[in-house]
Amino acid sequence: MGLGPTTVGLVFGVGGVGALLGALVASPAARRFGEGRTMVSSMVLCGLSGMTIPLAVAVPTLALPMVLASEFAQWLFLVVYKTGEVSMRQEVTPDRLLGRVNATERFVTYGAIPLGALLGGFLGQEIGVRAALVVGMAGMLLASSWLLFSPVRFWRQHR
């Protein structure tokens, strides 16, 4: 997309602002809409907001505002989701197993990152950058679909 180092830094900075806002709205949103509904909707919105990235490649004149909006929204919604996810995990996991459950979740989650990077690079080379970005963003959206059909959407924290 031809973004220079300063612009890339701006994109990450805007993502950080989105993450901070997500941290601030996570608890009020969960109280108002329910923890499960907030988790499901934030994950779906995170996936949907990423769909502007392939569009940014197609429309270079609007690339920067589209990338900035996507980075802001994705981080906002991801932090809202993760706040609910960790809260739920801490509530439903017995104290004696919490360390192992958290370690397993981090191993699986962070272990998938290099695999996704390799797959993304391969797809970018084989089918083109824009098509690879569409596949990646569709994968993010698809990854949230299990929440739509799970009991998580009805979860409310016991207070």
Q: CATH top level? A: Mainly Alpha
- CATH homologous superfamily heading: MFS general substrate transporter like domains
- Using DSSP, what is the number of strands? 0
Unreliable stretches: none
Q: So what's the oligomer here?
A: single chain
Main beta-sheet annotation: none
Query: What is the mean predicted local confidence, pLDDT?
Result: 90
CATH architecture: Up-down Bundle
Structural class: mainly alpha
Taking all Cα atoms into account, the compactness measure Rg is: 17 Å
Would you list the SSEs in sequence order as H and E?
A: HHHHHH
In total, how many domains does the architecture comprise?
1
**Cα-to-Cα separation, first versus last residue:** 48 Å
The helix fraction, in percent, is over 70%
Outline type:
globular
Describe what you observe in this structure:
With 159 residues, the chain is an all-alpha fold. It has a single domain (5-154), classed as MFS general substrate transporter like domains (Growth Hormone, Chain: A, Up-down Bundle). 82% of the residues lie in helices and 0% in strands. It is built from six helices and no strands. The chain has helices at residues 5-33, 35-49, 52-58, 63-92, 98-127, 129-148. Helix 1 (5-33) crosses helix 4 (63-92) and helix 3 (52-58) runs antiparallel to helix 4. It is globular, with a radius of gyration of 17 Å. The model has no long low-confidence stretch (mean pLDDT 90).
